[in-house]
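Subject: mismatched residue count in predicted assembly?

I count 649 residues in my input, but I want to confirm that the predicted structure covers every chain. Input:
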Amino acid sequence: MTQVTTVDVLVIGGGTAGPMAAIKARQKNPNLKVMLLEKANVKRSGAISMGMDGLNNAVIPGYATPEQYVREITVANDGIVNQKTLFAYANNSYAMIEELDSWGVKFEKDENGDYAVRKVHHVGTYVLPMPEGHDVKKVLYRKLKQNRVIITNRLVATRILLDGEGKVAGALSFDCRSGEYNVIRAKAVILSTGAAGRLGLPASGYLFGTYENPTNAGDGYSMAYHAGAELSGIECFQINPLIKDYNGPACAYVTGPMGGYTANAKGERFIESDYWSGQMMQEFYEELAGGKGPVFLKVNHLAEETITNIETILHGNERPSRGRFHEGRGTDYRKDMVEMHISEIGLCSGHSASGVWVNERAETTVPGLYAAGDLACVPHNYMLGAFVYGRLAGESAAEYCAATQLGEVDEVQVEAERQRIFAPLAREHGLPPSQVEYKLRRLVNDYLQPPKVTKRMEIGLARFEEIRADIQNIVASNPHELMRAAEVRFILDCAEMAARASLFRTESRWGLYHQRQDYPEQVNDEWRVHVQVKKGADGRMTLFKRALEPYLVEPQEAEKFIYQHLRIRPETVPE
Amino acid sequence: MTHTIDFPVKVNLESCIADKGCTVCIDVCPLDVLAIDPATGKATMKYDECWYCLPCEKDCPTQAIRVDIPYLLR
Ligand SMILES: Cc1cc2nc3c(=O)[nH]c(=O)nc-3n(C[C@H](O)[C@H](O)[C@H](O)COP(=O)(O)OP(=O)(O)OC[C@H]3O[C@@H](n4cnc5c(N)ncnc54)[C@H](O)[C@@H]3O)c2cc1C
Ligand code: SF4
Ligand code: SF4
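Triage response: the counts match. Full output below for your records.
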């Protein structure tokens, strides 16, 4: 059975950016039919499923200016940014906070009712805590209903449909419970499927013990790639400093402003600032592996009142099972430091820079295709970036619809995709998706985890090809397993892109994110460019350079110095 | 002898009201790992693919669910 639906705007992924995009498309043009298509359930899906501890990058008048923010992120991302896209975020950041506040999202305020912004970054002040931030999804859901967005849950999108001219005509998907095949025709499609969070294998070995919400397997990266869109900065991996094994944030952003910090085994600070960047991760990695390792979050020197406050926030919001984890190991913030580790690798522009190439209107390089949130290449964008780009994508798509006809559906593509998706159900024997996924992600760790080495990545690519053959042997006994089988293919596409983009950039940049042992230097003459990945006309993966747009604001030398000198020198460590 | 395996998501069969039509936890789980157990008519963990994120536990109207940290991470 095939279900065919026709809408104007189709938003794929109902986590953070997606609901905002759908709401804004409807608000821009209330005559449009807007559908939000979600693999899980919009009520509790995505990274902010249980809420969020704070905005990591709020640009609030009186604390920071858009110019200052753009300069800092330019430096944090080692110069490889399109500043226009950063400005589109920064200039719209405050209005988005005000709007979310008016919708009922709770941000911390001081006694005068002003936002209580905190300093965590090296230079500027951008962190706005949300100690009562657990209701974000409820607020979004209410707005979706008010704006009469059509919501479909448990549909797994697998491919973007293109018409004869190469513009978007909709998307293909299947129901992970009923197994029904769904063709959705649309004039515009917005991808907001989040990070590629199931790329590396967590050190625990548990497939779903990831930093990111594991529903996000890199689906959108793969769909954009097969639609012919450019992706950018894929070699700038996401690697985060996390609670060991639990794999959630430790979280220095919450505890930092209260006096907590990242420390080595001696309880000493070793980095000037806990803001996550490739340079910071490099220092973290070295301390972890060095004689003073491993690394810890230290709060045990703080007052009881402060610790109780930290527990209330960290055990109630965002990743609330963390208290249980500590309990199980007998860790008490009052006495113990919390052991940390580095995460498996992922792709995520919310945290680093790897994503689908977009301009300041959230347009990809494919007509009618938009991207927002963690999968759209706007470096260090985080949650507020997902909301702002969700808005930009929704509004741009609504405008585009006014001047566009519905594209013709290519029946050959629809049929080929049906065959491809449902093949594992028809096979009588073969490999379970979980084993193929485990092996693939173990290979990602073995061959792609930085420090990167040319020969290792080449071997990795060859092994990935073997996995591609194994995928032809995956069996599934129900639609749920079919979903896992589809995800293995998304993960494999991301793994191949990660290897090829890393091999292409023959220099080191972004600290640990792209540290190449055999090309240890940063080579600005040759590599102050974006590295783009795209499916070539022959169906093969192509890589090329894209020149940087001229900067709109030039980072200051002092700002660059700070990011390059993160390690606290021994003599400056207070006794 | 039959063994039962210890899964992270535990459902209290006394308090679960799935037999009265409740499917809240099954609806909200981002990984879609919960389902009605045909044998008991109650909610159960069908796939060991849990992100220990807790919407199931938080949204259950009768507090019938308790999620433990998966063994491999404990
Ligand atoms: C543990 C954690 C803590 C964080 N803490 C903070 C913080 O304190 N402050 C901050 O600013 N940022 C934080 N972030 C980052 C922030 O949450 C993200 O940048 C932001 O929420 C990303 O939004 P998104 O819409 O891109 O992705 P998501 O919100 O993850 O949404 C993606 C959606 O797409 C759906 N989907 C995936 N594949 C498909 C498919 N094939 N078909 C249909 N639907 C699909 C998923 O189910 C999901 O609902 C944190 C992230 C994590 C993981
Ligand atoms: S939400 Fe609670 S009561 Fe409802 S089905 Fe799940 S366990 Fe049972
Ligand atoms: S903790 Fe999260 S992933 Fe696990 S069963 Fe509950 S809702 Fe699903």
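The first strand of chain A starts at residue 2 and ends at 6. Marking this ticket as 'not a bug'.
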